[in-house]
Amino acid sequence: MMAVPVFLYHSVSDDPPSWIAPFTVTPRVFREQLDRITDSGLSVVPLRRLVSALHGGPPLPPGSAVLTFDDGFADFYWTVAPVLADLGMPATLYVTVGAVHPPGGQPTGSLLPPARMLNWRQVTMLDAVGIEIGGHSQTHAQLDTVQARQCADEVVGSKRRLEEALGHEVTAFAYPHGYSSPGLRTKVRQAGWTSATAVGNRFSSNADDPMRISRLMVRGDTPPAVFEDWTAGRGAGVAPAPERLATKGWRTYRRLRAALGSPVGGPELL
């Protein structure tokens, strides 16, 4: 089974807010990691090529990798995009719609703490230069714990808003926090999203679930040796993998806490 590293980034900054700092890499480290990908012999391909292969299309060539970015931090526009353009690397940016700033106004609202986020002009410009824009819900809620009406707005409403802004179909979705469930995955697929990424901290593969694509999260404290292992196809399992009992138990606990009005977060246990 071919191991495909799908790298997950958040912010790329020298001075991030404290809440996102653990999930932030500096611009210097980011460039070093992209150079490591190239030096390893991997070729970065668009996410849509992996999705097409998972839906029965042409298989990915050996040595493929994918770059993804979650949330929609403003540093993607100022820092990440120029580096990707310089290296000729494609990427997918998953945008939390409620955190995007409209022209001359305030964002409609998200659960993300304060940070410099993209505005709609920047999102449309990134789309115009070839960055794939995907959806990351309206508010970044834990979608496997919310009520049906809110879930529909998060999944369907975010797709509609992005398509109105960009003027074309948007098909790539990412689950906030990486959380999903069989029922949620069905809702995402029925809404017209053709792929959805989780976390998993596994390699994806030619047998992965297109509605639960596994990714490797790059953190601020990811050691260079670990990243090098990932580029060599080592150091992590390969998707698909059955959902662990711990993940099911954690979901049940989070749903109970959400029902009691005191939701909790934390990484997905996979």
From TrEMBL:
UniProtKB keywords: Signal
Major location (coarse): secreted
Pfam family, one: Polysacc_deac_1
Name this polypeptide is given: Polysaccharide deacetylase
Annotated GO MF terms: hydrolase activity, acting on carbon-nitrogen (but not peptide) bonds
One Gene Ontology biological process: carbohydrate metabolic process
InterPro entries the UniProt entry points to: Glyco_hydro/deAcase_b/a-brl, NODB_dom, Polysacch_Deacetylase
